[in-house]
Amino acid sequence: MTPQELAERALAASTTDGCVALVRTSAAANLRWAGNTLTTNGVMHSTSVTVIAVAGASVGSVTRTATTADEAVDVVRAAEALARAADPAPDAQPLVAPDADDATWGDIPADTGIEVHAGVVEDLRAAFDVARADGYDLYGYAEHTADTTYVASSTGLRRRHAQPGGVLELTGRADGGARSAWAGQQLRTGADSDIAGLAADVRRRLEWSRRRVDLPPGRHETVLPPTAVADLMLYLLYAASGLDAHEGRTVFSARGGGTRVGESLTPLALTLRSDPSLRGWESAPFVVASASGRTLSVFDNGLPIGPTDWIRDGRLATLITSRAEATTTALPVAPAPGNVVLSGPGDASVDDLVAATSRGLLPTCLWYIREVDPQTLLLTGLTRDGVFVVEGGEVIGVTRNFRFNESPVDLLARCVEVGAAVPTMPREFGESTAATLMPPMRVPDFNMSSVSDAS
Amino acid sequence: MIDESWRVGAGSTRLPGVAHDIDGAFLDLPLAALADAALSRAAELGAEHADIRVERLASARLTMRDAAVESSERTDHSGFGVRVIVDGAWGFAAATELMPDAVAAAAARAVDVARVTARACTERIELAPEPAYGEVRWVSAYDVDPLDVPEAEQVELLGGWSRRLLSADEVAHVDVELSAVRENKFYADLAGTSAIQQRVRVHPSVTAVWVDDSGGFESMATLAPPAGRGFEYLTGTGWDWDGELAELPSHLGEKAAAPTVEAGSYDLVIDPTNLWLTIHESVAHATELDRALGYEANYAGTSWATFDGLGTTRFGSPAMNVTGDRVTPHGLSTVGYDDEGVAAQQWDVVRDGILVGYQLDRRTAALKGFDRSNGCAFADGPGRMPIQRMPNVSLQPDLSGPDTAGLIAGVERGIYAVGDKSWSIDMQRFNFQFTAQRFYLIRGGQLAGQLRDVAYQGSGPTFWGSLEAVGGPSTYLLAGAFNCGKGQPSQVAPVSHGCPSALFRGVRILNTRQESGR
Questions:
Q1: CB–CB contact A253 B217 (8 Å)
Q2: Which member of B324, B370, B500, B507 lies 3.0 to 4.6 Å from B397 by CB, making a disulfide possible if both were Cys?
Q3: What is the mean pLDDT of the segment spanning A403-418?
């Protein structure tokens, strides 16, 4: 059966007060390599059906692999049984009504296959040859995904969204791993893959790593590259639950109650924005939720998502809020985003910021970031695959990696310069995240807490 | 310690606890026909090796916020994955239609993948040998399948816990989460093994939150680890929930009022509720052979414990003895056979402080000349290719060692860490930083109240070199996690770690408020 037929069959079988059917198809093709040879490679396809049954104010949600009409009906029956036995849901709202025809509803699911990487395989062969000749090894990963979501509701709503995605990553290691470099790229199509560009970046960084410079831990002026800023801003957004802030338990809670919405977070005119229609980095223009949770409600399935400023001109503009939470918190409805852009007054590149640095650090990326203290959103993590020492506007060598302890909220308050936002792959969040366009950021006193012996 | 009396071998295996049959709906699938279609198609197309896994993962996740259901979701994912070696290269294809035509088509796609990628393969894939076991079945040890428990019963139990906690003055909010999984796997390969397995696991967690009108807040979570048990784990088997919930508000209140720590060097007694995670990050990940050989260099990282040091590298003090296994009852990594058809085993990883063993799959075992894999291949679902994943990796107690109070008694100025919280470690498993649910000051061999804003930092070999003593068997706890991440595409694996309390000398303690510049 087609996804549309599965959705319609589920709705037709519904016997409760309301029903939402989500049919999701997923296709992925990936390559992985290590030590200048491909290792584990594969293609995956799947189809699942989620039924959200509403009985009065109660709800039940069941997701199953389903490809036949009988299986779709079984999902409906299971969800209805849960709904009928459940207490009223605290996030109960009327199901979303259709607001416009979705011209793509009848389209088939997006697909991908191993052939999308044929060019990558050939480019890798060449890159492996160069690496062998130059005495280093390449490691990495290429993934292309094509996910399609169909949302159908008993209100008549029909929405479809096809989301292409992917990543390309390249790590180079030399001298038995004593020198290491990384470069990464978010993808939308396989044709975007730029092995040659990433390989050139990795080679440049490995060359920078030939000279070692010992530096102690402490607070250093640091040029954070876009990938690092992306990871930090994603952590900030993950802590941006309107309800949690309203209840007094996040960094965005105001003393004495309420939230910090409206408060200045940074002296720079920075804007953190999401927009499903962002050209080239489009994301789902409506809510998709198989289960409720912080910031998410199954009753909001199909709710349109518009452009949202999370930070506007340096001030906290809003927090992630479902329809039900909006009534509790008095915040506007603001669904979780599918992309995020941090922009400011600057247009400089990483190289421009380095050229304007008299003495500082340039990390390649951040890794293993975890929350230490939710009150300040203090995060810990490490630099990875090269921390370069900048003097007189030039990279003069590499120092050891550091563990950092920093809060992205504090960094916004202390940063003194940002450059132009560019598409970037957040190393920590990797392939399973929102698209990010981030600038490089200069922080005068980034807290490198201790040295790591990892190289 | 590990009971080996029920070690898995050929034939059917029963574990302690209530005997369960494999789920009937899974057995009703045309498993033999699917295997025949996939393996014969792969062989026709020239595969040197082929295997198929058919999996069904049924899971339930319930979250409650202040005694009301916040989220409830039941998922049931089925599908299959076919893995081949063609021309010395891996190929893999997965899909969800459990029909012979579909698996045969997937086998052909897997062969295509191998042929496309073989052009950039310079290393021929070989697998270490493993006996063929014929048709075998295995079921984990549990009493009540958690997926069979009605949600209303779960809500009543967890809501009751929430209301108890909310009645305490110290508690403003209560978050509860319960995750439960029933995992069915069918594995078959060209060599002749055909294994059907079933296991369940549960992870209940309760967090109490204190909120101060002036803008401060604190939280404290229960220490109960996830377990390879059924719903009986929530009703008195394997954990004292009543006892822990009764003490949680006073622990939280004490933490909220505790003095901030003075940063510096302290002796550290670590409770097994915290130490398991330090073992996971700094020992278990460091002894994965695929990491040590660089296969995770782009993602999870490598290891300081390189292969050339096997048998000679000093990993820690002589008090350190670590085992790997896939046989511990209720262990989250416990199976009968791994996802390459290798029978479950137990082995030494660190003996008297020396690195003596790695975690292997058939690929890495062959690469480094081992006679056999020790059975650490795992895929987290039908749509993922098996990679080397973590077995239960456990620090062994000192059979004549002291209890936790005895370890504390040997510390003049120190800190006692209880319960895991924040964790982070570098990509070679050197530099780590952990926090805990509770930190206590130790003064003159006695606990002297909780401290706030504490984190401990260390570097793997130095930290384990500072291990002075481990506790006795009475301090031993099997803990673990559902969500160990590794691999690209990323996979999560459940894993357990057993350990006693332990005493480390001269550990760096941070004040996290100072770290944030306040």
A1: yes
A2: B500
A3: 98
Smallest CA–CA separation between A415 and chain B, in Å?
A: 14
Q: What is the pLDDT of residues B202-212, one digit of tens each?
A: 999 999 999 99
Helix (H) or strand (E) holding A173: strand A158-174
Structure tokens at B44: 């026709």
User: Domain tally for chain B?
Assistant: 1
Is B193 among the domain residues?
no
* B457 touches A at CB < 8 Å: yes
pLDDT in the model for residue A99 = 81
Greatest CA separation found in chain B? 73
Q: Specify which residues A419 forms β-bridges with.
A: none
This model of the complex carries an ipTM of 0.95
Backbone angles phi, psi at B498, to 5 degrees: -95, 145
Give B507's strand partners: B266
CB proximity A405 to B under 8 Å: yes
Interface touch B431/A453, C-beta < 8 Å: yes
For chain B, give the number of residues: 518
Contact B321, B396 (CB under 8 A): yes
* Chain B contact set for A401 (CB, 8 A): 426, 431
- A129 to chain B: closest CA residue: B120
CA distance B393 to B280: 7
| H/E stretch holding B247 | helix B241-256
The Cα–Cα gap between A378 and A405 comes to: 7
| CB contact (8 A) between residue B152 and residue A47 | no
Surface of B (314-373) touching A: CB under 8 A:
none
Is residue B371 in a domain? yes
Rounded CA-CA distance A267/A315 in Å is: 9
Chain B interface includes A70 (CB < 8 A) = no
Local confidence band at B18 (pLDDT 50, 70, 90 cut-offs): low
Residue environment code for B223-246, b if the CB has 16+ CB neighbours within 10 A, otherwise e = bbbbbbbbbbbbeebbbebeeebe
Q: Which residues of A touch B95 (CB under 8 A)?
A: 44-46
CB contact under 8 A, A89 and B301: no
Half-sphere exposure (CA, 13 Å, Cβ side) for B441?
A: 17
pTM reported for the whole predicted model = 0.96
Of A399, A386, A402, A385, give the one whose Cα is nearest residue A446.
A402
Q: Where are the alpha helices (DSSP H) in B79-120?
A: 100-117
Instruction: Please state, in angstroms and rounded to a whole number, the distance separating the CA atoms of residues A80 and A195.
Output: 50
**What pLDDT, on a 0 to 100 scale, did the predictor assign at position B15?**
46
Chain B residues in contact with A256 (beta carbon < 8 A)? 213-215
What stretches of B326-377 show up as alpha helix (H) in DSSP?
Answer: 362-367
Domain that holds residue B499: 264-516
Q: To the nearest whole number, what is the mean pLDDT of chain A?
A: 96
User: Does some domain include residue B139?
Assistant: no
Q: Chain A closest CA to B11's CA: distance in Å?
A: 31
